[in-house]
Amino acid sequence: MTSNAAIDSRKKTNPSVSPKSILNSASKFSGWSRKSPFLRYGLPLVSLTVFGAVGLAHLIKGSKEVTKEKDNIEWELLETTKALTRTGPMEGYKPKKFSLEEELKMLQERIDIYHYEYRKIPRPQEGKRKKP
Predict the structure, then answer these.
(1) From CA 41, how far away is CA 37, in angstroms rounded?
(2) Which end of the chain is more exposed for a tag (fewer CB within 10 A), N or C?
């Protein structure tokens, strides 16, 4: 068992890669970011925007499919109704004629604006106070 652990530990640490070379490569990267700020700020921003748009498109695709299916069902229902009636669905529905003069006359008959009674509306503070 101990020999296997020793072999595994040798595999994990690579003696050919020294800490000095790791620090050197890290300093090269920080030098790139100082020389071109696009690598530090622009590239993450552009990649986040592109991957965000792709991700949102993937999420929205499901709701678009549901909406499309609903529209198809409504269209089939409309076509079925049209096929069942001789004149079609638009001829089957005839709205009532509407005129403003008739509506005004009807309102004047229901409400008398010349004979009314003044009523005092109690304020919210008045209802809470107790009279001494």
Answers:
(1) 6
(2) C
Amino acid (one-letter) located at 111 = I
Q: How does DSSP assign 7-71, residue by residue?
A: HHHHHHS-TTS-HHHHHHHHHHHHHHHHH-HIIIIIHHHHHHHHHHHHHHHHHHHHHHHHHHHHH
DSSP characters over 58-123: HHHHHHHHHHHHHHHHHHHHHHHHHHHSSS-HHHH--PPP--HHHHHHHHHHH--SSS----PPPP
pTM: 0.32
Q: What average pLDDT does the chain have? A: 76
Provide the CB-side half-sphere exposure for 57 (13 A, CA): 6
Instruction: In whole angstroms, give the CA distance from residue 38 to residue 28.
Output: 16
Q: Is the pLDDT of residue 98 over 70?
A: yes
Residues shown for the chain:
132
